[in-house]
Amino acid sequence: MVWLKKFKFIDVIREEVSVGKALGVEIEKYAGKLDFYDFAENNSLLATLKKHFLIRLIGFKYRKLKSSSLQSLETGRKTEIDFLNGYITEKAHTMDIKTPLNNFLVKLIKEIEAGTRKISYQNFELQFFNQYN
User: Fold this and answer.
1) pLDDT (tens digit, 9 = 90+) per residue, 20-72?
2) Distances (CA, A) of 86 to 21, 38, 83
3) Alpha carbons 42 and 9: distance in angstroms, whole number
């Protein structure tokens, strides 16, 4: 199931890059190395293996850190979701670009903020994500 979460992560980036391209935003290479366009668009077997390796490497390197959004959720505060994935979904909607994963992530975080859903890895096991298997 871990591999499936990586595919979801890659698909979230894919949606975001497509919106950025439509907006004419140039996404710079991260640390001068990670090309998000290539990450989102290159689907060769070798590229996919590299993506999974990179995600695992980053996850291992930062495994002890908590994102500011997670810290906010854990302390009952609002997150930056409206200014991150929410911004992507708003712009996508105005340009008629489909961003189902980003839309769902915004909804999921809003439910956690409202207290109607718990913070849990089980959120990634929801029926919605089954279509991305």
Assistant:
1) 999 999 999 988 888 888 888 888 888 888 888 888 888 899 889 999 999 99
2) 17, 24, 6
3) 15
- CB-CB contact of 109 with 81 (8 Å): yes
- Class for the domain spanning 2-132: mainly alpha
For residues 119 and 73, the answer to whether their CB atoms sit within 8 Å is yes
The band of 127, judged by pLDDT with boundaries at 50, 70 and 90, is: low
pLDDT in tens, 68-100: 999 999 999 999 999 999 999 999 999 999 999
Nearest to 16 by CA among 111, 79, 94, 91: 91
Task: Say if CB 16 and CB 27 are below 8 A apart.
Answer: no
Answer yes or no: are the C-beta atoms of 123 and 117 closer than 8 Å: yes
Instruction: Provide the token pair at 81.
Output: 């979701």
HEC string of 62-95 equals CCCCCCHHHHHHHCCCCCCHHHCHHHHHHHHHHC
CA gyration radius for the chain? 15
Per-residue tokens: 121: 């890895």
